[in-house]
Design brief:
The longest helix is centred in the C-terminal third of the chain and has 23 residues, at 59-81. The chain is an all-alpha fold. The chain is built from three helices and no strands. The chain has one domain (13-81). The chain is 82% helix and 0% strand. It is globular, with a radius of gyration of 12 Å.
Length: 82
């Protein structure tokens, strides 16, 4: 991964964490940040591991969708564990 890819992953992760918290419910900037960053990583791992095709041609939008899905997974699992 290049530096620009990591920066895009972080920025989209934060936005994805915010969106996921809006969808699932939640508050707090730190929680958005953590859920988004972990979600971006989890989302990418899930998509890569299962070979899921995300038919979006715009790179940043595809990354955002994957990160949001991953953030939702992270939030739901965190609530189940807590």
């Amino acid at each position: 991964m290049e530096t620009m890819d990591i920066l895009i992953l972080v920025l989209t992760g934060v936005l994805a964490g915010w969106l996921a918290s809006r969808i699932v419910g939640g508050k707090g900037l730190l929680r958005y940040l953590l859920a988004g960053l972990l979600g971006a990583l989890v989302g990418n791992v899930i998509v890569s591991y299962f070979g899921i095709a995300v038919p979006i041609d715009i790179s940043w939008l595809r990354t955002f969708v994957i990160a949001t899905g991953g953030a939702i997974v992270v939030i739901v699992v965190a609530r189940l564990v807590a």
